[in-house]
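Give me structure tokens for this 167-residue protein.
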Amino acid sequence: MSKPTGSKSKRAQSVEGQLRRARVLVLHGPNLNLLGRREPEIYGSATLADIHASMEGRARAQGVQIESFQSNSEGELIDRVQSAATEGIEFIIINPGAYSHTSIAIPDALRGVAIPYIEVHISNIHAREPFRHHSHFSASAVGVVCGLGIQGYELALDAALARIDPI
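Here you go.
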């Protein structure tokens, strides 16, 4: 039996998928490199590697490539956001950590590249110290997830996957 005209073989589809896949960037701000040992009563015992592995499996199942980047430096986070615009990143998930409450420059960079993003916080910032109640990121985010532990990253990824074309 012959194949219908215009259909692609599985090999051709696989090669094409490797050439161009939708990409999601996950950014982690200051001190998140200490997850798993930093204040486990607030942040739990999962590490960044655990979070990335969970998200990577979910994304791959949808044909999406996920990349993670962590920095304690505001300038490095800004540089990574700006690079994302020329790399074909279609969505950003960001846990800005303490920069949520202090940085104007990172949200400016996010607005400047016009890549949609979701803000994630492991803890409920509204139930913590008063200075943590305001985030400079929230107003231009597609959504905000806070207080749900590392499950917040998975929920943000599900929302991002629903908004992008996995190609």
